[in-house]
Amino acid sequence: MSTNPLKQLGTLGQSVWYDNIHRDMLTSGELARLVETDDLRGVTSNPTIFDKAISGGDTYDDAIAGALRDEPELSAGELFNHVAVADIRDAADVLRPVHDRTGGTDGMVSMEVSPALAHDTDGTVAEARRLWAWLDRPNVMVKVPATAAGVPAIETLINDGINVNVTLLFSLQRYAEVVDAYLAGLQQRARRGEPVAHVRSVASFFVSRVDTAVDPQLGGDNTALQGKAAIANAQCAYAHFESVFDGDRFADLRALGAQEQRLLWASTGTKNPDYSDIKYVEALIGDRTVNTLPPATYDAYKDHGAPRARIHDGIDEAPDTLAQLEAAGIDLRAVTDALEVDGVQAFLDSYNNLLRTLNDKAGTLAA
């Protein structure tokens, strides 16, 4: 067995994706190197990642200038899409051999719809369809937030045959809705006699932010529960995944070649310095899952990860842990609802900052 912990995760059924993208990764060959040396199998992006990439220097200036030469009237939002689509396409091309080798399961690159559409079902559907056609690669996913408005959009897009990365999932209740939407979309395709085997989706379930929100509320006699909410929450989600996709509800679709909507562990960087820097990787290693790692966590796991399939360790006790948290005064539904709101706002803030940066750059380059 390989001594590279990142590669070992693949042998345990978990795909490692990289929660970062930057043009320098593509032009320098870094992304191709990570695929080769670490068995990297996918890339995720979001408005915050692109904000840092584009605002952080002049790497994108030539691409911005070129887009404006071709279409001088581009809005900042359209200018961003031109730049981002180019990166996503190039990354998808690097990862295409992974996609082919894994039968379409991995090798995916994700691009998010505008966070300004998070509460607009029709707007999300229209934007996702436009991005899907523009990206024009089989190994891309359009990211859609799991808001109340996002759930019906997800069903429609799966019905369209579009690959969807469902993002900003925090609560078990919303996760169940997302699974239902995925199944409903596939079932609609199947009833029309359209193929379902090529459709891929992941449900990005956010982890560490739950502990960050819950831990400060646990004091006195309840300090022993600190650091337990996030993993118990994720384990309960995985239990639901297994009950649905290994059960009768999925049997007919599976017979038609449909694939599970894998759980993708997101927000797996450790926020609390008192915890292990790989806490949220080690605890959630399991078959048919994805973990998208930010650069620092990626490097840390490669350095000192100890891979072993742990997702089932204590999974039967996870509901009891959530019950103990409730008894200690934690309203987990309220916590996860607030995290969803905050997550959408954080991406919107990054997106608006990015648009301001692009407007400034456009003015400077024009001058």
From TrEMBL:
PROSITE patterns in alphabetical order: TRANSALDOLASE_1 (PS01054), TRANSALDOLASE_2 (PS00958)
Entries under NCBIfam families matching the protein: PRK03343.1, tal_mycobact
Keywords: Cytoplasm, Pentose shunt, Schiff base, Transferase
Family matches, as InterPro entries: Aldolase_TIM (IPR013785), TAL/FSA (IPR001585), Transaldolase_2 (IPR004732), Transaldolase_AS (IPR018225)
Protein's recorded name: Transaldolase
Major site of localization recorded for this protein: cytoplasm
Compartments where located: Cytoplasm
GO molecular function (one): transaldolase activity
Enzyme class: transferase
Gene: tal
Protein family per UniProt: Belongs to the transaldolase family. Type 2 subfamily.
Enzyme Commission number, as recorded: 2.2.1.2
